[in-house]
Amino acid sequence: MSEPLVLGIETSCDETGVGIVRGTTLLADAVASSVEEHVRFGGVVPEVASRAHLEAMVPTIERACETAGVGLADVDAIAVTSGPGLAGALLVGVAAAKALALGLGKPLYGVNHLASHVAVDQLEHGRLPEPCLAMLVSGGHSSLLRVEDVTGHGRGVEPMGATIDDAAGEAFDKVARLLGLGFPGGPVIDREARSGSSVAIAFPRGLTARHDLERHRFDFSFSGLKTAVARWVEARERSGEPVPIADVAASFQEAVCDVLVRKALDAASSEGIEDLVIGGGVAANSRLRALAEERAGKLGIRVRVPRPGLCTDNGAMVAALGAEMVARGRTPSSLDLPADSSQPVTSVLV
Ligand code: KG4
Ligand code: ZN
Q1: d(CA 162, CA 171)
Q2: pLDDT tens-digit series, residues 181-208
Q3: Backbone angles phi, psi at 278, to 5 degrees
Q4: What are phi and psi of 221, to 5 degrees?
Q5: Residue 85 in contact with ligand 1 by CB distance below 6 A
Q6: Is residue 327 within 8 Å of 23, Cβ to Cβ?
Q7: Ligand nearest, relative to CA of residue 186
Q8: Tens of pLDDT, residues 161-172
Q9: Nearest residue CA, atom 7 of ligand 1?
């Protein structure tokens, strides 16, 4: 029997994603982003995102089917992000998925956005090693997860740590804004940092002092770092000296990546886990990838990072997790599946 053909829908933030996979093979990954519409606000506006999802949904489904060379009638199951995310945005995806499941008479799987960020790696690097340690870093979340079973069975997905204030991507976005670099900040800072020095300015490493490690060994904090960058830039401007944008970007980026990698590897080592999977928009960061490889290698830990297009929000990741649900015989969701803006990571399938 051939592997299941699964269509996945993602609308938790500003990307309308529709992906189609067969088992662990990616057939289509259509994404329509409303990011341009949010630029002038310096961040995602939920109402604008919801409306954009509504307009993009049908054309994006059609584009995905065309790319995959399949018709909707060929699809064996529909998967959708049921949470966490922006409530109104999630609703659009969940409603579309229910309509498809009902209309086609196919099972529906409402899945967790964070677990999807982990499952997507299968599309690129083959079967996910379980258990693995997943670090998810994006504009909305920064978490360390112990993944025993990505579909949620048994110990399933257990949170080990998370940010206590800003998400890693949010820190990139805020620092880019204060440097006048635009939105989203991650890619521009990544680019600027290439011509700067990562040791030019000693920015703080949040929650790494001994007394913090007692309570927050695997947690992150980026708001102090953001404030430190703001103070440094202000002092520079007050003294009438030019702000060395590239050096600030490189030193800030180093502070974020240093803490992320340090804590992820500490978490993996503490659990005796030998595989680290990194996902989420910030996983596209070139320094994060390099630093993780370098330090993990010394500990005998393998690092898996999907290509940037699969790290940012997309429908393929939802389809990938949906296909895993089908393959492992999980019970489909009911058609009254709710969209849950604060769905906990321990709830992988609703
Ligand atoms: O996963 P994602 O597309 O959406 C959310 O779920 O948030 O992540 C978007 C975030 C933004 O904060 C963006 O600045 C950040 O990922 N990002 C990066 C890079 N590319 C995107 N951060 C650092 N370096 C990058 N190259
Ligand atoms: Zn995400």
Answers
A1: 14
A2: 988 899 999 999 999 999 999 999 999 9
A3: -115, 135
A4: -145, 125
A5: no
A6: yes
A7: 1
A8: 999 999 999 999
A9: 139
